[in-house]
Amino acid sequence: MSHDKLSEELRWCVTMSDPGPHVFLLVLQPEEFTQEEGYRIRKILDTLSDRSFDYSMVLTTHEDKRGHMDEDHPLNQMVRACRGRQHLSDRTQLIADVDKIVKENGGDYLTCDVFEDTSGMVQGKEEIHSSKSDWILKSSSKEELGKDVLEQGESAQLNKWENIREIGLVSLKQERQKPSSSHEKLSSLRILLLGKNDDKKSTVGNMILQKEAFRPAPFFNYKQQCESASGKVNGKSVTVVKTPDFFASPLTVRSLMQEMEKCKSLSAPGPHGVLLVLKPEKFTEENRNTFKLILSIFGKEAFKYSMVIITHEGDNIPVDKTAVDFVEQNADTKQLIKICGGRYKIFDASKIENAKQTTELVTEIIKMMDQNRTCYTLYMYMEAKHQSELEEKNRRIKDLEERIRNTSQGEFVEHREEQILGECIRVVLIGKTGNGKSASANTILGRDEFESKISSNSTTTVCKKAVGKVDGRTVSVVDTPGLFDTTLSNKDVQQEIVKCVSLSAPGPHVFIIVLKIGTITQEELNALDLIEKTFGPRAGMFCLVLFTRGDDLGTMLIQDYIGESKIAKLQKLIRDCGGRFHVFNNKDNNNRTQVNKLLKKINEMVSMNKGSFYTNEMFQEAEAAIKRKQEAILKEREAEIKADMEKLKVSHETDMEKMKSKLEEERLKVQRERQLRENMLREREEAIRKEHEDKEKAEKEEESWRTKKEEDEKLKKEIWDTEKERWKKR
Ligand SMILES: Nc1nc2c(ncn2[C@@H]2O[C@H](COP(=O)(O)OP(=O)(O)OP(=O)(O)O)[C@@H](O)[C@H]2O)c(=O)[nH]1
Ligand SMILES: [Mg+2]
Q1: Same-domain status, 87 and 190
Q2: Best mutation site among 586, 589, 590 for ligand 1, i.e. most ligand atoms within 8 A of its Cβ?
Q3: Where are the beta strands (DSSP E) in 265-416?
Q4: Which of 503 and 257 is assigned the larger pLDDT?
Q5: Protein residue with least CA distance to atom 26, ligand 1
Q6: To the nearest 10°, the Cα dihedral for 408, 411, 413, 419?
Q7: Which molecular-function annotations from GO does this UniProt entry contain (predicted)?
Q8: Which of 79, 31, 83 has its CA nearest to residue 58?
Q9: Distance 441 CA to ligand 2 centre (A)
């Protein structure tokens, strides 16, 4: 590991064990431990404190063979340096050993003043001493630590992050208690560069360090990671951390936060200045918001450590004037500068070697440090994180409180009337259109609350509730439309039922099924089925049948009317309703006896039900049962369809097979016939050819016979002529 890297790592470790470690565990492997490693460990521990070894213990992870080792073996030397403390890997004993060290040191731990730059230790002995002097002994008991944490309202169960925060709380207390000296802090100035343009950030970083420490990434190679470089400015150590281009990258807020945490660890324990590098002409509102987002991830405190760096190029333009003009004109930049406490600096990127610019910037950062009295620390980051979590929790609590308030207020409004009137009996009237539900509701209440009239259409179209007194008892009545008439869809019926059950919240004590004396149609009987199905099997205990048009009964008793009825479904319905029925003559609405008798029956039912009532859950249960039944029917139907399909398939396949074999037969027949025809044709051709050949042969023979005859004739003639000549010559 390079010196720079080692220094960086140490700084991070020191930050993580803030306010200071109680124990250093030197984890060593006996057989592989060399003299050189021993020197290195001593160097690191000496750098941290003169008394580091008082807090150290050797932990060997392998079997201890020290007994067989030479007295001067580097491991033995290290154990002696650690005041003879050595531990073999045994977890239970380890804690006891650590406790022993803490006790021996009187509960002290090692700490360092705001974790000054430890890079000095690798650069020269003088600096090692100055760094060493920063370390002081601090005392803290567990109780004190717990108190700090409790002051911040933390729970006892601290998770990993909360532990870091716990450390941070103590650290901040110390930071705040300590007067800050900018010159002390300048010995390790840490600067974080944020910005869209990698080129510009590199330029600014190089200008600060006065060397080519950063190289801008080629435009096609976007740099995803933070880079850090250190150097000396006016003899002081400066670390610059360049962040990646968070603006152009497709980073999510989460990965952006992770990357920012990495950047922060590179500038641990925290940057003294966060420089927002921007190019005047390219700065947009979107960029400003991204800057704000990044800074808000660091927390509100981060703005106190921020400064806007405006880069400008070209000697020919009076830089200051243009940039100042720009700042004046560009509202987005102006706003960003404002939230950064009005701090901004204009850098001429074309004058990279101009040390004056760097000195001025460093002076500005020192000024900022003097104002802040500390650097931006891990604590602040954790605090910001914690704060935003707290705000989110508070917001959620407020939301919940609001909802609870609204709900209880709503219920209060709904039940206020009932509460004023006292204990309430909740009634819902259901039944076919025109059966007299509204008229019965009016009779119960003793006033014309609901519209009731003869009509071919539904008079009542929506559920409505009214409250009144019956025989000194409060009764809330919900009138409903003809829910079980065939005109409404199942979904509409269900919605209306939920509504009417909710209207009589927390649930109706009784459903009054309203029927009228007279002919009961098939449609009405179907509706009765539907009522039973819809409300579920448990609804019967909350139901009562009310007959209207009692005036039509004349002298007949309702019991006789029911007894004489040949409609089995009606009998069943009354049975299912626990034998509860009643009759109203709504034309005689001043007759309170009929109402009081009804209420008596209802009261008996309520006491039998021990005051329980029908709830939406029961309805949902019934609904679910119906759904299950429907699904079962559907499944059955599906199975039937499947079986039918299967049958069809089989018969189709058989048909197909038959068809196929028939087709094959046909094909073979055709093939055979064709073959036959072809054979016949071939034979015929053969015969013709033969005939033709015979004819040709005969012709040829005739020709040859003719030729031979002619030749014979000719020969005969020649012989004759020759003979004739001879005869003449004789
Ligand atoms: N004679 C007589 N008529 C009644 C009785 N009850 C209701 N009626 C009449 O029947 C008709 C319908 O009554 P409603 O109360 O509107 O019936 P409903 O069930 O509310 O009807 P919808 O609101 O359409 O569902 C009205 O003309 C009432 O006057 C009764 O007991 N006797
Ligand atoms: Mg009505």
Answers
A1: no
A2: 586
A3: 273-278, 306-312, 344-348
A4: 503
A5: 453
A6: -110
A7: GTP binding
A8: 79
A9: 9
Among 12, 25, 16, residue whose Cα is nearest residue 53: 25
Distance (angstroms) between ligand 1 centre and the Cα of 481 equals 12
Q: Which of 139, 157, 176 is the last residue of a domain?
A: 139
- Which ligand 1 atom is nearest residue 441's CA? 15
Q: How many angstroms does the Cα of residue 480 sit away from the middle of ligand 2?
A: 7
Looking from the CA of residue 435, the nearest atom of ligand 1 is: 19
Q: Which of 6-20, 336-350, 520-534, 549-563 has the lowest mean pLDDT?
A: 6-20
Two structure tokens written together for 566:
């040949």
**Residues within 5 A (CB) of ion ligand 2:** 437-438, 459-460
Query: What residue ranges line ligand 1, CB within 6 angstroms?
Result: 433-439, 452-454, 458-460, 481-482, 548-551, 584-587
130 and 205 housed in the same domain: no
Q: Looking at the domain assignment, is residue 716 inside a domain?
A: no
Asked whether residue 192 falls in the same domain as residue 125, the answer is no
Q: How confident is the model at residue 259 (pLDDT cuts 50, 70, 90)?
A: low
190 and 299 co-located in one domain:
yes
Do 472 and 610 lie in a common domain? Answer: yes
State how far the Cα of 48 lies from the Cα of 30, in Å rounded to an integer: 24
219 neighbors 201 (Cβ within 8 angstroms): no
On whether the CB atoms of residues 191 and 264 are closer than 8 A, the answer is: no
Give the nearest ligand 1 atom to 431 CA. Answer: 19
Ligand 1 mean position, distance from CA 447 (Å): 15
| Residue 141 CA to ligand 2 centre (angstroms) | 79
Distance 437 CA to ligand 2 centre (A): 5
Whole-number pLDDT of residue 456: 74
Strand ranges, E, within 550-699: 581-583
Substitution candidate for ligand 1 out of 429, 444, 452 with most atoms within 8 A of CB: 452
Same domain, yes or no: 127 and 212: no
Pocket test of ligand 1: the residue of 428, 443, 459, 496 to mutate, having most ligand atoms within 8 Å of its CB, is: 459
Boundary residue ending a domain (556, 584, 614): 614
The reply to whether 190 and 124 lie within a common domain is no
Tens-digit pLDDT profile for residues 151-184: 333 333 223 333 333 333 333 333 333 333 333 3
**Distance, CA 531 to ligand 2 centroid (Å)?**
17
Q: What is the pLDDT of residues 21-52, one digit of tens each?
A: 788 888 888 878 888 888 888 877 777 777 78
Ligand 1 atom closest to 461 (CA): 23
| Model confidence at 389: pLDDT above 50 | yes
Q: How many percent of the chain have pLDDT more than 70?
A: 66
The total domain count for the chain is 3
Assigned domain for 392 exists: no
For residue 7, give its domain range: 3-139
The Cα–Cα gap between 366 and 308 comes to: 15
Asked if residue 128 belongs to a domain, the reply is yes
And the tokens for 728?
Answer: 């003449």
Give the residue from 16, 11, 15, 40 showing the smallest Cα distance to 26. Answer: 40
SS3 701: helix
pLDDT 10s digits, 601-641:
999 998 888 888 887 777 777 777 777 777 888 888 888 88
For the domain that residue 536 is a member of, what is the CATH number?
3.40.50.300
Question: Does residue 274 lie in a domain region?
Answer: yes
Query: Which atom of ligand 1 lies closest to the CA of 458?
Result: 24
Is the same domain home to 190 and 284? yes
Question: What's the 535 CA to ligand 2 centre distance in angstroms?
Answer: 20
Please count the other Cβ atoms lying within 10 Å of the Cβ belonging to residue 184: 14
